[in-house]
Structures are given as structure tokens and as C-alpha cells.
Amino acid sequence: MNATGWKEKLSAIRDSFSISAAKIPAENPEALELRFLGRKGELALLLRDLKDIPLEERKTLGALGNTVKEEMTAILTGLKAVSGAPGPAVKTDLDLTLPGWPLPKGSLHPLTVTLNRMGECFSKLGFSIAEGPLIEEDYFNFEALNFPPFHPARDMQDTFYVDLKDASGKDLLLRTHTSPVQIRTMKNQEPPVRIISPGRVFRSEAVDASHSFVFHQIEGLYIDKGVSMADLKWTLETFMKDLFGSSAKVRFMPSYFPFVEPGAEVEVSCVFCRGKSDTVRCPVCKGTGWIELLGAGVVHPNVLKACNYDPQKWSGFAFGAGIERFAMLLYGISDMRMLYENDLRILKQVH
Ligand code: DAH
After folding, report:
1. In a domain, 279, yes or no
2. Residue 34: pLDDT over 60
3. Ligand 1 and 297: CB distance under 6 A
4. Which one of 126, 218, 234, 328 is CB 3.0 to 4.6 Å from 333, fit for a cystine?
5. CB of residue 318 inside a 6 A radius of ligand 1
């Protein structure tokens, strides 16, 4: 064998050692040692062949051979440590083909899930989504919605004012409801209009099981020719049945909101006791069989006029609801604060 042939052989032995050492499950390191480094091992025999090679080259080849031998010894020491050798042939339990540990999956927040479900119901009825700013002008939040300055109806909505003025010199405020999106939408487009507007709203209120200074609402607005209270009733009934099941009933109680006339509070039949809490009083509907869920009504002509819609030609209905209230009913949550605490034990129950 000449020097080149010897080098090629060394390289082949080295490759086959690497392949054997990297096998999974791992080969027994003792057997590997015997095969490559043992007295009659592949490398040992090759080193012995050096004697046939001229002295000049033998020196460098010998050094090369020894380097490979050291490499192999180091790898074998590592393999023995992993497999717990010395001892009989040991197979490791490592199986890289097994699936990994599952990573915990995140999920949508109950409020987002609720909003998505409500949004789906309305999108089936042809409503599209409109959005507005959280920092709002007095004009959009109150005035154009038929709350004149100093009108007592403003007292229904404790407001956070921002230390900035709008173009007319009035303080900006954090919107107290999603109703200003009605005005913004109507001022931006010609009728007909069919929108829902979900989003965050703010009120200067103390926090308790059913109040928060930040919460979420969804607003609805439908303007067309000849839209009446009957359309409002049908739309809300269809929505409630879609969300809570076909046995859900809806009733309207007269109420007052400056931007609608007539105005109503809309109640749904209690989804928990179904009105049958004769012996034990249902804690959700307080035994009345009804749960108040929305404000609604026929859009006031003053609101249409503020948006340059002719009230003789166009009419419509509007409604607004708190998303938290729906989430609490859908997921049986009794305290609104649970929705903001982000306790995983609660969040994990909602998918
Ligand atoms: N904006 C009202 C509130 O936050 C809710 C509401 C009532 C919205 C009646 C409406 C409506 O669109 O017609 O209290």
C-alpha cells in the first residue's frame, strides 16, 4: 500500500466510525472500541501497515493516524459516559422520532370569543363593522346624539375628561359609549347604513361585580327607507335566538335615551332558569325570568338631521349592549372582574 492508499483507507475508517458512533439507538461503545481500536481493530491494523511505507512519509501518516485514534477515543469515552458503561451493552431510551412535549396553546380571551360570536350573528344579517376613536369629542359622544350641553341625560354617563381641547375649545373625553360611531358613520356615508361597532368604552365608575371603569360595548345602526320598530324587534329577536338558542324570548320595556324615540330596554328570557325558579330564586335573573341586555330604539330625527340625513326620507333603529354582560351569561361568570384578572383557571375554560 502506498501513502495515498493508506490515507484513503484512514479516511474511510474514520467515516465509518463516525456513522456507527452517531447511530440511534446508539451502538454499544465497547463493541465499537473493539471494532476500530481493538488489537485486531480496523485502525490498529491500518497503523500496523505503516511499516510498509517509506520512513519519510511514515512519520506524517503516523501522526495523522494517531490524531484519528485520539478523536475516536474521546468520542468513545463520551458514549460510554452516556450509556453508563463500563458494563454490558446498554441502549439509551432516547428516541428522537417520538413527538415532543406539547406546548400549551393560547386561546382567545372570553370577551373576544363573545364579541366574535355576536359579530357573526350580525354579519349573517348583513351588518358590517365600523370603528371609531377611543378619545372622542363632546360633539360626537353627546351633542350630535341629542344630548345638549347641561342636559340631565348626561348624568347617566360619568365621564373621564382629557386635558386637551377639540377644535371648538371643548375638553376631549374618553368615549362613554360606542354610540358616537353612529354619527361618524352617517357623516361619512350616504344611507342606507347597516353597521355594528364594537369597542372599548370608559366611565368614571367604581369597580364592583357588575361595573368597571373600562368595559366593552357593541353598537348597531340600521338606516334605510321605512325602517321601523318592527324591524328592530325582529333583528334583536333573531340575534338572541342565534346566540342563546331558539327558545330564547325577547321583550321590550319602555326606556329613555336621548338619541332614540321611542327608546327601549331589551330583555331576554333567563338562559339559566328559563323562568322556572319557583322554589329557589335564580341568582342571575333574581327570579324575574328576564335579563336586561340592551338599550335600543328608533333613531331620533334630531340625530338624523345632525348627520344631514332627511328624517322625512330615512328612518332607522339603533341598539347598544355591553359585551361583558353577554360573556358572563354565555360562560356562567358571576363577577365581571374575573374577565379582567386574567386568571388562567378561568380563561382555560373558554375556547
Ligand atoms: N349608548 C347607550 C349606553 O351606553 C346604549 C344604547 C341605548 C345604545 C339605546 C343605542 C340605543 O344605540 O339605541 O347606555
Report:
1. yes
2. yes
3. yes
4. 328
5. yes
